[in-house]
Fold this protein.
Amino acid sequence: MAVKKLNETTYEVSVVREGEELKHLKEHVLVHFKDAKVDGFRPGHVPAKVIENKFKKEIEGEILNHIISDEYRKAVAENELKPIADIKLEKYEHNDDKVEIVFTIPVLPTFELGQYKGVEAEKENVEVTDETVNEEIERLKESATKLKEIAEDEEAKNDDVVNINFEGFIDGEAFNGGKAEGYDLTLGSHSFIDTFEDQIAGHKKGDEFDVNVTFPENYGAANLSGKPALFKVKVNSIKRKEEAELNDDLAKELGFDSVEDMKNKTRENIIKREETRAENEFKNKVVEAVVNATEVEVPEALVQREIDYQINRFAQQLQMQGMKLEQYFQMTGQTLETMRESSKENAEKAVKTELVLAEIAKAEEIKATDEEVSKEIEKLAAMYGLEKDALIADVRKNGNYERFIDETNYRLVNQKTIDLLVNEAKVK
């Protein structure tokens, strides 16, 4: 066996088995096939040559697995490697007398840390003006705005919420998905095609009328794209926003004691929010500076794994919105390949950050205590509305306990490491 370091993330292992060594290995493998069923022979009495001919591919596969398994363990142990993914078979040549194998092992890179204590980063000085507070107060007022039905002789206008029944026709024929009753439509929202909303403006409650529109050329349903349509519409009700007045009653409705209390607490909330944002931005800048100060070759295997993780997480978010990844690709014109390519840069940054933080934690001997892990599990359980023991029981039931503890430990160590960097950092 010969082991060669190709680069910081890949080792190559070359193996040759021949002569008596290969012969003994074949004999060892053939033992597993001695009871194989072969027509014309009793189990256990099949000649070796017959077995070799009938199960040639299976025997070759067993020999390959034996050699790779043995040499892989030796290469890892003797060279103190840290494998991070499955091996890749680069070469496999064989005949009755000789087997040549070359495979590569993806490993964690070794690297020297750059400066990670005392790095400099900019930190925003938070200032909250009266204007910012007033804008937030306006948003709170907007949230308290109520919809009130207008008089029957009043006409609908932009920003009104109009409740309608409608049915669509193309060439006099109703089409699927073109009918609804009791639908609330905000005029001016541009949620309906063409001038649909414009043609409702000016009508009153109880009006029944026709709306003529044309579906856009790139409309999602091919059978409707570019076609003119007529909608029969009836207005059931019209509601208009009734702007809330800023007074103590409104303040109490929103959970404050008075307008003055509302303004003071709103200012406090904004300050807390902005200080948290500024602190998080500073933290991110510190970590980025530390990571940039270290040169490390990022393993492609870990990058691809991170891309898988990012895409799976995105697919789960889509699923929560009732959409599948395939539907998203159809709507956006993307493909899985283009998504993987566009995700690569962020994935490389994420992997490098993870490697550098892990190396710093090792250098600083940062660990999470059993008590800290226990408290973190309690917090997680509370988030899910569970008792700690119930969460652990659920994780054990799914067979994920060891992984769950490892991930919890990793998060704590990671956060402690970042806290160290931030505490040691200097504000520009």
User: Anything to note?
Assistant: The mean pLDDT is 91. Residues 52 and 58 are 9 Å apart (CA to CA).
